[in-house]
Design brief:
six-stranded mixed sheet; 32% strand
Amino acid sequence: MDLHHIRNFCIIAHIDHGKSTLADRLLETTGTIPQRRMEEQVLDQMDLERERGITIKAQAVRMQYQAQDGQTYQLNLIDTPGHVDFSYEVSRSLAACEGAILVVDASQGIQAQTLAHAYLAVDMGLTLVPVVNKIDLPNAEPQRVAQEMSDVFGFLLEEMVFASAKEGKGVDQVLEAMVTRMPPPKGALDAPLRALVFDSKYDPYKGVVAYVRVVDGRAMPNARLRLMGSGRVLEALELGAFSPWMVPVEGLSAGEVGYLATGLKDVREFPVGDTVTDDAHPAQTALPGYRPVKPMVFAGLYPTEGGDYPLLREALEKLRLNDASLSFEPETSAALGFGFRCGFLGLLHMDVVQERLEREHNISLIVTVPSVAYQVVTQENQITTVDNPSKLPPVADIVEIREPWVGISIVTPQRYIGAVMELVTKRRGEYRRMEYLQAAAGADVATGARVVLEYDMPLSEILVDFYDRLKSLSQGYASLDYTLKDYRASKLVKLDILINNQPVDALSRIVHGDVAYNQGRALVEKLRHLIPRQLYEVAVQAAIGSHVIARETIRAMRKDVLAKCYGGDVTRKRKLLEKQAEGKKRLKRIGHVEVPQEAFMAVLKLED
């Protein structure tokens, strides 16, 4: 197709602002999907996405649109997730597009992810089409939100498109705005082939399927291709487009988006961000790729049944075929046996992976306390990365411990500023700046006058329950976005938990020295209620090094050994009691205390 009649775009929005619903209406209006096959969230193909109402994996689809000027346009939509954990997927999608539809909820206004994604799109040079969505809601304020978008991003009010994706209002205007305002892709059909790999997945029949955006030249089936980054040579078994299901085509030309089936068995052999070129006539320069995906959160996954370890390994290997951002390596815990140390993009990503393993592969798991990667400077002036508290070197060998810090952006109504600031300050946040978003005169204070707060704070302080507390304090109105900044030295210590005088490495944490006592005390109190009672007393202790800072005792279950004594001399009763006491001492030495999954999750729910 002529380059001037192609539009490559994505939809960016804060979570739950109607992005997937708008994509449904676009597919419906352009006739891409027959009415009989239409369903809600049609691009969200995983059951987990539908149940939670969120987009986890980016999807692509090709649409044909007959515009008012009489021309037929090819519209390539790359659907993006909205949650902060999957911002990496958004950046990859933006790099494959020339334009983006910026969707904002008419009842909620601009949120943190709206700002983050919009600024990212502007930095990449994309043309934005502003859409005020959900104008059908009773509490919608489309004019106020439009003015807010104009003040923050500089849009003209006449550029705004008012829509209700649920009812189909304004969808035609969105389509017309796309073909008239967004630029066509740039590229040369007669130049050597250059195609950007912006995503990949594993198909059991086709092998690795790479999602590609052709920038220059033309890709043909059965051609020998080369990856410019790795130098690997492969054959194009099949080329196709998404409608949204995979449909083979005769070729992909400059400006088009589609897929390339390779027959490879591992997505790591086809890295995202690489450039595909023709092996016989290669391009001279590769396209700008992506920064490698970097895990932010680490946790241990252990099967509850030791015999399921091989099944867990196989399940993780299969899951990584469709989720290249998942990383894992084997590890051993004295308390839990054999398992894997996994790296995730965030807590939601961790939760999704755990649920997919349990649901799709029927494996019961124990997940350890999530942690971040720390940099440890040793006495030999070496810097090592530690993502597991049990691998922390001895205290005598440590010069300093550096923890990752992030820049956070919180959008909140004005009335909650004090509570939000107190929460962030309590989590060691450092104030950077505050900016008021313009609100219409007379707007309700809970939904109108809002503020952007920017802080620097440790990533570990966000992990546990920061987002839940933020939502609770602001009655659900505040939103959060964060980006990794740097590593900073802090007064950090390793907090160990001992059960029956045995350290449970899976419960160890690296915490700030100022809060170590309070967190240790709160944790042992919770564990006292969560760990089942035994036939002997069990001591639950929190310790820093060899110094115990908190202790609770789980009382023994009492068995009445005197029940069978109906009389006789008192020495008979004493003999039975002494025999019971000896048995409890022996049992305490050799007994094993089972730690339930709730004990590991207790760390996530500690009160301040």
